[in-house]
Amino acid sequence: MQDVEHLPIDIHYNKLLDWLVNRRHCKQQWQAASLIVQEKITAAVQGLPDSKEIKGLVARTDLNYFHCQQVIELLKDTSCGEKNIFGQYSSVEMKAWSDIIKIYERDGMFLAETAQMLIRNVSYEIPALKKQIARCQQVQKECDKKEADYVSKASELRKKYAASCKELGIKGDKIKSELAALVKDLPKSTHRFLSLPYGQLGYSPNNTQDEEDAKETGDGAAGAEIDFDISGITLESGGTDEGKGVATGEEAMTMLDNVRMRNLFLDDLMEVALVSDQ
């Protein structure tokens, strides 16, 4: 039959500390001894050797019984772990941390401290971590959704970019140099383009009349004698003879003579220059 002392028992975590005190596994005034231990730990930390692992361990603000045991194990691998002929540690640092362990184990004080840590972790720390995990998971879902949206948007913008490059007649690998190469083709058609008058299709610069000439022509016609004889009038079919039209005013000017069109043309050139500089 199994020994009764080794049978497991179920104790509610919130009542574990009270159970230890009631069963006299630790004293009721264990917190007073805990304050003494913390003072000794603070003093012992100052004399530790320069070890990266030890310094990282004692940098914690919640050193407890288990951390002190780890410090002793690390000190054994340093010069502080040397023993004298009696088999005892000769270094002051090792003696200090060994005394701390003895105080912890005296009257089961480390059991009470461990029970208090368990209660605090289960009641407060673990629920707080669960809430933080839930928030992080929610943020992760939102980030995944945004990532999918950005990937879709990037694909759409790449298609628009390729269409714009195709419309401009460039590959889109080196925009600045490719746009600069397009500018070289402008002088070939500039002279022909600027020599065209601003008017209806079919007008030519040789068949123009400015506003002053039109006014003079109109005044001369008004001063001439009116002939009311209609015998020589012949009817013709309707329609316009675009080839014999006369351009007047702005329509008779070339691109650079027309102020409005010249400004529009210069604005377009400025936009091309800005794009090529980027």
UniProtKB/TrEMBL annotation:
Entry's Gene Ontology cellular component terms: endomembrane system
GO BP, one annotated term: regulation of mitotic cell cycle
Domain of life of the source: Eukaryota
Family stated for the protein in its record: Belongs to the CDK5RAP3 family.
Name assigned to this protein: CDK5 regulatory subunit-associated protein 3
